[in-house]
Amino acid sequence: MYHTVVMTCGISMLQGNRLFSLTKDKSLESLFAKQLQEPIEKMTDSMWDEVASYLKKSKLLFHQISKNEHDICAEYSMLHTLYKRDK
């Protein structure tokens, strides 16, 4: 039915009660609060280390995706629903 799907993406995946939320882990609050607001050119080595730490922690949650399809972000939920309906 759909030939093209256009989506915009924000940072909703990283907020609130989402599976990969930065705000669930207090140690990552500084990354979310200010560092992700900076242009990539201003990222320091310590900021990149925090991003790497977040990605490492996130990989531990990958096995939970299939049980939480609608708890990732709105964009993922929409694509998942279209896929399940063979659209």
UniProtKB/TrEMBL annotation:
<protein>
    <submittedName>
        <fullName>Uncharacterized protein</fullName>
    </submittedName>
</protein>
